Amino acid sequence: MRKSIIKALEFTVFSFIVLVIIQTVFEDLSLLLDWETGARRLLVVTGFIFDLFFTIEFLVRLYWAIVEHRVSRYFLRERGWVDFLASVPLLMFNSGPALLALFTGGSLLVQFNNVLNILKVLKAVRIARILRFLRVIKIFKNIKYTESPMAQRHIARITSLTVTAIVIILFVFTTVSGFLPVPGAERLYTNAQRSVVRLADRAVNSSGASADLYDVLKEMNTGLLRVSTKNNDILYSRYSDTELNKHYMQEDIIIKTNKQETLFFMFDNKPVQQDLALQDLLILSIIVIVMACFLFIYSPHFALTVTDPLHVMKQGMENKDYNLEVKILKKYEQDDVFRLAADYNEQYLPLKDRELHQESTPYSELRLEDVQL
Fold it and tell me: What phi, psi does 18 have (nearest 5°)?
């Protein structure tokens, strides 16, 4: 009964791992394909549910590890650090705030906007979603190229280190680059928005705002969506409220003000979001290719050159009737495993055959009458 429950839970976790990866891909595609906000809100909710599920799973596993006094084993040998990185940080810094912004209309997100800009963590948090792919590594314990736990552990270890290194490098680079004056597309887009604010501010102070002015600002390719006053009087709007709510979420909009804070400018932030989504999909593709190479190319190679020869030698030493020689590949004959296999083939097996032959033909007893004088 207990084993059945454990298998059912493991299958549920496996299903959620597959679904959360699909959800991550669709979340980026929803930006690139400019889906309506209804579908994107659904993706935000499902992302939160997945991260909450994996966080609860991690806490349960951690609790039992503490009860059974095997915390270090859980974190290191059983890759509990993968469970942690792929759940808690994403719930706290990605799906949790996104869901909060969804239900509060983004008001809390706007209050902390300046802090987030100072820390430059927004892009890094998006990159951190790739940590969900680390969950797939836990599936590698079911590799069936061989029955060797050594092969399964080795492939899982090297894959997790590779994927983790990629994620850490991207995370650090993305965070550090936010503080450096690198002329990227986002920075150029932001500078253009500031130019719009300054131009409009000078025009208002000199002769007042006009429709012609906003038409000119709209053509500057800065994504100007709306201009309003402090009293919420709309001076210019590219879309109606209905269209704006249909196609734009809070994260798709950047709000800037003039120095006197009398004018509020709403800009389209989708180009920046789409650029990040394209980067995410590119990185996800790279990780998928890397993991596929380890699983379908390196894993059979490791089995062929390490675990299979060891398996044959182990069977030959344990079973009397097992006399199969290890097939030694010429291009790997200098490897330690195949040098050992050569000794096994050339020394151990012949010795084993002689011993078996002696056991099967015992010495016969001689009698006096059998001796002829």
Answer: -65, -45
Whether the pTM exceeds 0.85: the reply is: no
CATH fold for domain 185-268: Beta-Lactamase (3.30.450)
Rg, Å, the chain Cα set: 32
Distance CA 284, CA 129 (A): 10
Look at residues 85, 174, 84, 173 and name the one whose alpha carbon lies nearest to residue 122: 174
Write down the pLDDT at residue 203.
65
What are the boundaries of each domain within the chain?
Answer: 2-182+274-297, 185-268, 298-358
| Digit-coded pLDDT (tens) for 7-32 | 787 788 888 888 888 888 899 999 99
Yes or no: say if 123 and 278 are a contact pair by the CB < 8 Å rule. no
- 41 vs 95, 225, 279, 287, CA distance in Å? 11, 21, 21, 27
333, 339 contact by CB (below 8 A): yes
Among the ranges given (189-203, 301-315, 338-352), the one the predictor scored with the smallest mean pLDDT: 189-203
Q: How confident is the model at residue 339 (pLDDT cuts 50, 70, 90)?
A: very high
Dihedral pair phi/psi, residue 224, rounded to 5°: -65, 120
pLDDT of residue 120: 44
Residue 263 is inside which H or E element, if any?
A: strand 263-268
The answer to whether 236 and 92 are in contact (CB under 8 A) is no
- DSSP assignments along 90-151, one per residue: HIIIIIHHHHHHHHHTTHHHHHTHHHHHHHT-HHHHHHHGGGGGHHHHGGGGG--S-S-HHH
What does the DSSP assignment read for 208-236? ---HHHHHHHHTTSS-EEEEEETT--EEE
What is the maximal distance between C-alpha atoms in the chain? 142
Q: How far apart are CA 116 and CA 126, in angstroms?
A: 13
Secondary structure (3-state) at 279: helix
**How many angstroms separate the CA atoms of 191 and 272, rounded?**
13
Would you state the structure tokens that stand for residue 295, as one six-digit string? 């699983």
Q: How do residues 134-174 score in pLDDT, each as one tens digit?
A: 666 655 555 444 457 787 778 777 877 887 788 778 777 77
Strand ranges across the sheet with 234-237: 234-237, 224-229, 263-268, 253-257
- DSSP letter at 331? G
